[in-house]
Amino acid sequence: MQIRIGSILLAGVLFSQLAHAQDDLLGLLGEDKPQKEYVKAAFKSSRVINAHSMEFLNPGTMDFRILHRFGTLDQGYKNFFGLDQASMRMGFDFGIRHNLMAGIGRSTFKKEVDAFVKYAPLRQSTGPGSFPVTVAFVGAATIDGLPWADPTRTNYFTSRMAYYFSAIIGRKFNESFTLQLTPTVVHKNLVQLQTDPNDIIGIGVGGRLKLNKRMALTWDYTHVLDGLPTGYYNPLSVGIDIETGGHVFQLHVSNATGMNERAFITETTGQWGKGEIRMGFNLSRTFQLKKHKD
Fold it and tell me: Can you tell me the distance from the alpha carbon of 103 to that of 95, in angstroms, rounded to the nearest whole number?
């Protein structure tokens, strides 16, 4: 009788252990189920060169950015191939959510202040419910800080303002190649001539080609479809990204002087074919301001 009771107890213990092991196994199988993952590092910065990229800052992160552009190379030795001149933009960008960021900057070109918000309702992802591209929107305002050309007339603060609105459709095809399209509309409250349009429409193309672990070739180009005044040209910039720890350092050449969409889309005066291009660099340094759980 005692042997029978002992056998029953032992069988119960074994059954309990087997049931527990089965639950653990099922749990492990559940962890192996495909998960939705968002694609990251399409670009190493939230900008390609001049234009916004499909990339976003992490929440709680600040990106301190210095964009620097020298004079044109065609001036030769008398201007030390452009190194005697300089134009720059200093900016602070902030990551709010993984698909939302904002920033503000100030340029020496026209002493202009600009501010933007960028939001992505759709992000490229893999796994269940995946989406093949990132779709983002950028809205921004700029303020011209130069003295009034004619202070004797009635001047309005709104005349200093301009706006731009961009849509970014981009895809990271693999670890080496990313491509995006960026249709953009720039609106100026005040134009130079009555015959100049207030709205200028363009479409940009930007990309990144990884060369090795630390370096990548980047480019952005905007073709103005309508509204570009005589004497201005489509901006083209080509650069090399160099990752150095917490910094992203970018060397580039461009025919544009301005470094926000209003400036480089509507007021690029240089021509690549005539050597009216400028060497420059962009420096990006990120700081973690706040730990964010998302």
Answer: 9
Burial class (CB in 10 A: 0-12, 13-18, 19+), 128: exposed
Q: Cβ distance 116 to 124 under 8 Å?
A: no
Closest C-alpha among 284, 260, 292, 251 to residue 63? 284
Tell me the C-alpha distance between 90 and 254, whole Å: 18
Distance in angstroms (rounded) separating the CA atoms of residues 294 and 290: 12
Of the candidates 27, 31, 24, 53, the one whose C-alpha atom is nearest the C-alpha of residue 40 is: 53
Q: How far is CA 107 from the centre of its chain?
A: 18
Contact call for residues 131 and 158 (beta carbons, < 8 A): no
**Which residue, chain included where needed, has tokens 């693999």?**
174
**Cα–Cα distance for residue pair 19/270, rounded to 1 Å:** 75
pLDDT tens string, the chain, 294 residues long: the values are: 444 544 444 444 444 454 454 555 445 555 567 788 999 999 989 999 999 999 999 999 999 999 999 988 887 777 787 787 889 999 999 999 999 999 999 999 999 999 999 999 999 999 888 899 999 999 999 999 999 888 888 899 999 999 999 999 999 999 999 999 999 999 999 888 888 889 999 999 999 999 998 899 999 999 999 888 888 999 999 999 998 776 789 999 999 999 999 999 999 999 999 989 999 999 999 998 887 665
pTM of the predicted model, to two decimals? 0.84
Cα separation, 262 vs 185, in Å, equals 9
